[in-house]
């Protein structure tokens, strides 16, 4: 909670679209020591004015200016403690994961553990108005104003529920604040008008099937970084294109990382209701979704953890076999949960939504669907299985594990057929995942260098070069060296002069200029 501090004697209410907003709200706001430049790390702490909605009838639609705050990014450990910082006794029930910490600026008497902390997982959108003069952070879960500690209580709003709040940076620090927030919140959807300097940092370096990968996204492939949805979508799609055997591509549907989020949006109670949200997503499949033997769905758990749900043989659950028909063991319908967490969260909600969605998809799309077939019967046949899979040894590699799971499922002759029917711990270990992170970063830099050299950002067109394609496939499927052997690093991606490139279309590597190097830890 925010430590006690003196609020202005009369709270200031400001219309969010007032022309004089910036001068009124940033007056007297301290300035940070320096501004970020493109490619720099985020600031350790930003200082802004904090504003919250005033829901009273007389002031509806206005924002209440509650004071100047210092904001920092903190990581809560598995025991609820803040990594590298003090924690109050009230923090013991907090979930592990990153948080934004708000402290009254200039209040040196406040204990650092008594700050308001908002988990980054509940922040879904960042709406920018007037080129950064006001930044709204919209929440997936409403919080009570009394969670704002002294700010909410002294403003008389402790009974209010807040689904957003706003930060107003000093006019000279707009770029620093926006750049830092986008580093801290790589998963959020950014809306509104970004300043030109910040917007340029979001320009796509690569595109694949409509998925854009920016230089900032590529930085997330560095050491000890969590992947966002763009990086995960990009590389999962790349693996499907390059690693999946041709005879398997028609049997596997890989959903977008946004699929489950959209399925469950809008306050729907179950998968049958959520079907309306995504009913158009699979219309282009020649045999429909239920014509796929395997449906792979990436799941984001509260914006802090990724895992993979694989629906095996869904049609066999919806259209039960005839009494005389024997179902082979590998053809058993099931939803298999591949979760690399040492202590995975419950998967029952996700499984229930997927069952309901598939049942509704069958009822709406398949003329043979029986009116008497109830969801309860489908649930009995489409059982959930928590697979015994390799586990991560840290708190940030879950996204890489998902990519490695997919690589293994597509390259193994038996993994998909027997998925969830036997232990899978032997597939690979943490060492291979750490190896894959380095290779994925190298692939991103390689493709970026080639995109810049050719002035072509479409990865599908770039991969028409057979030599480049072979390099990428090798990086996606290579294994770490055997213990005792040194790993042979591939050549650094380069920006090569066109005159050096052979006419056959193969890629050379003579220069040492590497764009956007992925950060590493000491």
UniProtKB/TrEMBL annotation:
The keyword Transit peptide does not apply. GO terms for biological process: protein desumoylation; proteolysis. PROSITE patterns: ULP_PROTEASE. InterPro entries: Papain-like_cys_pep_sf, Peptidase_C48_C. Gene3D superfamilies: 1.10.418.20, Ubiquitin-related. Keywords: Hydrolase, Protease, Thiol protease. Residues 23-37 have a biased composition (Polar residues). One of its GO terms (molecular function) is cysteine-type peptidase activity. Coiled coil: none annotated. Residues 14-38, 479-522 are annotated as: Disordered. Residues 211-409 form the Ubiquitin-like protease family profile domain. Belongs to the peptidase C48 family. This is Ubiquitin-like protease family profile domain-containing protein. It comes from Polarella glacialis.
